[in-house]
Amino acid sequence: MPDKIDLAAAKARTISAFTSADAIWGQAMRAHQLAPPDLGFADRLRLLADAAARKAHAARIGNLAGLKWVPVPGALDAQVPYELRPGTGRRGPRELWQHFDSAVTAYNAANADTDLARLADAADELSEAASALATAVEQQDREAITALARTGAR
């Protein structure tokens, strides 16, 4: 017979995990706001990927405990910081940005719902999309630096 879930302890773990995830999420959002198109872009994308992964983890803890998500008011209309929006000169492969945009839409929709499993899946998808973009941007940056070094050596 499985052990009974201590609902109070599970709720406390969920709240603690979301508090921690929200702190990282806030850092990620602040880092992207009005950021210049610099070599730190990939690092900001990695921070966003980490924040989304932490949100997914927190949501899974809550879901396992049978908790429901409190929908975020205005979540369906939420926008990412400017440097992450379409039409802003985002660096990286177009198809990865399309995946990212879809992941943001799904994440916003999940934030407007009560299903923690849906939120966890959407946050995982957003994390994967941001991580793939970070890897691609890092590669582009390395290639650009190498090309500049070759040009400067002539």
Quickly describe the structure.
The chain is mostly helical and 154 residues long.
Write a structural description.
The structure is a single chain. This protein has one domain. 68% of the residues lie in helices and 0% in strands. The longest helix is centred in the C-terminal third of the chain and has 37 residues. The protein has four helices and no strands. The chain is mainly α and 154 residues long. It starts with 6 loop residues before the first helix and ends with a helix. The model has no long low-confidence stretch (mean pLDDT 90). It is elongated and about 65 Å long.
Largest sheet: none
- The portion of residues assigned to helices is 55-70%
User: Which descriptor suits the 3D outline?
Assistant: elongated
User: Number of folding domains?
Assistant: 1
Uncertain regions spanning at least 5 consecutive residues: none
What is the number of helices?
4
Kindly state the number of beta strands: 0
Core attributes:
154 residues; elongated; 4 helices; single chain; mainly alpha
What's the SSE blueprint?
Blueprint: H1 7-32, H2 41-64, H3 94-111, H4 116-152
Helix pairs in contact: 1-2, 2-4, 3-4
